[in-house]
Amino acid sequence: MDYTHFDNEMTRLTSEISKLLTSVLRSFENSIKALEDKNIELADKVLKADDQIDDLNRQIEESVYQIVARFRPLAKDLRYAVTMIKFANNLERIGDLSCNIAEKTKTYADVDLKDVINTKEIKKMFGISLEMIKDSFKAFGERNIEEAVRIWKRDDEVDSLEDIVREKAVKKLNDADFSKVLVIPYILLARDIERIADHATNLCEEIVYIETGKEIEDYL
Asked: Percentage of residues in the chain with pLDDT exceeding 70?
């Protein structure tokens, strides 16, 4: 195998993944902002950006197939190439979930959701999930297993926060000072963010698999 050309192609592919990541992060951040500001125009921007994200994902898949067919990599090199598809697919799913959040801007256009978004649990979930996505890509670029494991473990924080949201949602149904119409979006928003964090953990699992050939639970 021509390793020089293979490495060049993988560098180009990593650049495409970086472009996809940038688009996905922008959509995630904009979806929350659109919901908070009741900004229908920004929500529509998130929804339209999903087509670009889908196209980038397909381009990455096609590039991987071409690289594998051309260079016929083995072992770790093959895992690295094929895992690029899984990495891109997880980012694409985060983009889809960002669209779910953006759609809520329209669904609840007549409802002020600031009391939902500004709850400490939602803000923490959003912050942690955003960090997990960014940090996982950095760990991917550095092929840093220890960092991937650290990020992977942070999913427990997000899961715990979602549990708190569900518990509080039940209590808020009996709270005269909290509008009952906010309970459903409160739960659904937490669910979407938790699922985004799940996809970030998937990214970390792929990093460990690339480097070790093991599932992360087996590696630990």
From this structure: 98
